[in-house]
Known about the structure:
This protein is of the alpha+beta class. The protein folds into 4 domains: about 5-115 and about 125-145, Phosphorylase Kinase, domain 1 (2-Layer Sandwich); about 160-205, no CATH class; about 230-345, no CATH class; about 355-535, no CATH class. It has 14 helices and 14 strands. Strands 1-4-3-2 form a 4-stranded mixed β-sheet, covered by helices on one side. It has a 4-stranded mixed β-sheet with strand order 9-11-12-10. A two-stranded antiparallel ribbon has the order 5-6. β7 (about 230-235) and β8 form a beta hairpin. One of its GO terms (cellular component) is transcription factor TFIIIC complex. One of its GO terms (biological process) is transcription initiation at RNA polymerase III promoter. InterPro entries: TF_IIIC_su-5_HTH (IPR019136), TF_IIIC_Tfc1/Sfc1 (IPR040454), Tfc1/Sfc1_N (IPR041499), TFIIIC_tauA_Sfc1 (IPR042536).
Amino acid sequence: MMADAFPYPEDTPILEEAEEEINFPQASSSSTALIAPYRYLPKHAYASIEYPGPVSHPTSILKVVNQSDIDECFNGPSGSNPVLEIRYRGDQPGGPVRGHRASSQKLLLKVVRRRRKGKGREKEGEEGVFTAEVVGSVAQTVRFRSMADWHWAPNPEGETATLLRSLKELDYNAILDYSFPPINETFLEENPDSTDPEIRYRSLLDFQPTPLFTTRNLPYLYNFKMPNQAVEEEVYDRRTGQLRRRYVNRGRVAGVGPISVPHDQALGDVPKEPTNIIKNRMEDLDSQLIQRLRDLFDERPVWMRHSLLGQLAEEDRREVLRIKSYIPSVAYIMGTGPFWKCLVKFGYDPRIDSESRRYQRIFFYPNKRTIRNPLNVDPAEEDDDDKAKGWWMAEQERRVENKERPPVVPKKAHVFDGQYLHRERGDYQLCDVTDPLIAKYINEPSRLLSVCSPISGWYPPSLFTLIKTLVRIKYMYMWETSQPAPDDLCYGAIEDYERGMLVPDDGDEEEVEPDDAEEEDDDGDREAEGSVSPMRRDRRVRIREPGDE
Length: 549
């Protein structure tokens, strides 16, 4: 009962007054009272902390937590759900033990034990006389429901700790004098601290504490198990080139793509068959379409994706674009080098066959403003319809309507004949360059390299630069005018090549950014934005325009 709900003054004997008014029955002298006595409930409010450990004195908690943190926890607003953090090892890095403040309805009891001193102590017994007194109510309690994590401190004099201390103190000489220590593969030693006999060893790993420690705890019963959709399968590791086992979630559609082989991989070490994931899906594919793709790779072992799709009927082309497992079932992809992003027949390695020089790839960007391409093209200024279909294609449709050029034929998009363009992007294989002036340098080279270079392939660097320069000169003329490119545009570059003035490229554009093997590249996709146009490197090549003497 609360004290201010009782009408009597403080010095009134409560029990006697109550007996007179209510006429409680009196207990006999030989028995205890049947009614408990009334007591005032003090108005003092207390807050308690359920300390997770033995307590010798209430002030001992100040060894693991500051008084200011305790005040901030209990004085915070009711809806803030404040937290009290205790640290058993002071400022050493580690996750603290967190307790949460909660509302409570408890009474704080003061228990006093009285024992007789002297000779008569044995008569009273060892327990003594206990009395309990209510000193106030407990409205807030901090409870700790999680155990402390294992605490591990690295050697403060270790190599890594010394380097970090030098960096924090900006010790210039110590940083310059630092050298990597030899590798030590001794990771454990006997524990010199014998306070806990169960801990026999301690770690020698020189791990440093993380900047932050998570506040999330694992549930008490974690009970982790793999979902039913996760099954163990063999997958191809592109980094090591070997098969390894891993768990795969069958509940989602796994991404499929051709196996990617870098140019610097061991010669002859190329995939000879698809992965097990593709094999398992081949039963659901159209066998006639797969055979059609195999026949195309028998005719020509290396294809660009858009040129391969151009050989298929419209219905088959849509099927290949819709289901991504068709191409990985018949070919792999080159990730770098002169055959970058080219699809290659299983078992065929273009790096050991000099006849594969005809399948090398060249590309450049006509929509970039460079010294060799000072065209001011801003698709943002076009109408919405032109934006949707592309600036170049909209311009070609306008020229076709005005009978300034023949219609665009998508099946000829991969062919460069020096007459008309059928695709905006300058991306060709050398075997598809049919312009007579350029084809003679491709098909009848004066000499070839003994090994396939990652930059120029089987061609000497100067000859490969000439071929790219000739294709670029004619391409840019047709791209701007939509008219056949005359041969005399290229005479200056040929003259420089014959005189040895044509500067080879320092690096090939195919090496600028590696390809993602799972990227699906259709006719409307884009190349890697970080690639460098070869136009900006051929600055010493002269272009002879019509009418120049």
